[in-house]
Amino acid sequence: NQNQFCDATNIYGNSGCNVPSSVSSKILINGGTVVNAHHKEVADVYIEDGIIVAVQPNIKVGDDIKVIDATGKFVMPGGIDPHTHLAMEFMGSETIDDFLSGQTAALAGGTTMHIDFVIPVNGSLSAGYEAYIEKATRSCMDYGFHMAITKWNETVSEEMEIMVNEKGMNSFKFFLAYKGSFMVNDELLMEGLKKCKSLGALAMVHAENGDAVFEGQKRMIELGITGPEGHALSRPPVLEGEATARAIRLISFVNTPLYVVHVMSIDAMEEIARARKSGQRVVGEPVVSGLLLNDSVLWDPDFHFAARYVMSPPIRTPGHGTALQAALAMGLLQLVGTDHCTFNSTQKALGIDDFRKIPNGVNGMEERMHLVWDTMVVSGQISVTDYVRITSTECNTCWVGSDADIIILNPNSSFEISSKSHHYRTDTNVYEGWRGKGKVEVTIAGGRVVWENDELKVIPGAGKYIEMPPFSYLFDGIDKADAKYLSSLRAPVKRSTT
Ligand code: URP
Ligand code: ZN
Ligand code: ZN
Ligand code: ZN
């Protein structure tokens, strides 16, 4: 593939690989429509040393400055992908895209920051954190971490404090599925939720009932269904709905906010919508695959083709994706991730005789901005400002205050997706052959142009780890609700002692 990065040691060098065209960090973007989550206007944008210094019409600058003409184009914040798995050890394999290849691809697609999930090492959060900092040393774009909680004891509880107070993490994920590996039971979930609440950290769930999935898998194998279609059949929407509802009820009991990752079904979406309507602090994240794909591919007679689409929760029957799009448009779901988790054909083939062994996951980091634009904005389902909110700024309000990374999207240009031209390491692409309107022509990350004229100019090691503070807006007023609850308990019950 076309990964065009070079070593940090020769960024100013003579190695013949692509280097930053100008070390000058002054950029003027002329005449575009500048969009944020609430507003758009035609204006120029002037960037100096990675900071947006001015947004106004007719900015005048000297000759030493790189000028990019954005007339007729949209100038927007770079995308933030809230859900990725780079270089993750999972299901007997390790995801094929590491921090550098995944991020390089993301930058080519207009995403300038992502939040990856740290997996503890033998249950140790500190060891997991160290391992992921190591994995991320060659990062070429900004990144943050969520942390998975896979077992419970006093050490884990103390390490959660360290992660939040010293390591810049403000979210913890609980897998209610993957029995025998990552799955946690309700007792652990309750402990975790209480701890999250005390730390001001956002609890996240992978919502599928893992015990029932285990049962569903046995049922399929007994029926002789061993191919990729067995994956979808073994874990139907009802199991996602159940786990989503359970998590929502438990966070209501504990009184702490919840983020539901990869909402794939109407069943889960409706639980989230109902909870939000009743005032619960629940955020729902659909992912690109769930919005756009449907499960027919899992029945393809070619195992290798079908296996590409195996992820959890599974890609659903067609009605689910369109309902999730509508829910996103109406604000019932809040932001779009990818759950980028790639395995190549050889890795996927581990499950050729048994769908339970197919490593779960699909690509998306490079395609998200294009596919969401084409599916949601071009179709008229959402506005350009909504686009900025669901692909970028909503993520900021949940977690981060990132710096001013920018993309320029040309609405009149088109994109086409193929594994022949994508920038991942993986050899397949679940959106192979997709075409659409709207193309990210320029990506500016950390004040540098990293993608322009279909060329990448990334610097391994230039990406920064972004620390995320606890107690986001989702925690505002939680203490008041607690006080109200406690005072309601104090209503005295007078009982005679005789
Ligand atoms: O299939 C998936 N989703 N793989 C990544 C791990 C997860 O559950 O998020
Ligand atoms: Zn998950
Ligand atoms: Zn995931
Ligand atoms: Zn940045």
TrEMBL record:
Similarity-based family: Belongs to the metallo-dependent hydrolases superfamily. Hydantoinase/dihydropyrimidinase family.
Designated name of the protein: dihydropyrimidinase
Necessary cofactors: Zn(2+)
Catalytic activity: 5,6-dihydrouracil + H2O = 3-(carbamoylamino)propanoate + H(+)
Domain Amidohydrolase-related as annotated: residue spans: 74-450
Enzyme nomenclature, EC number: 3.5.2.2
GO biological process: pyrimidine nucleobase catabolic process
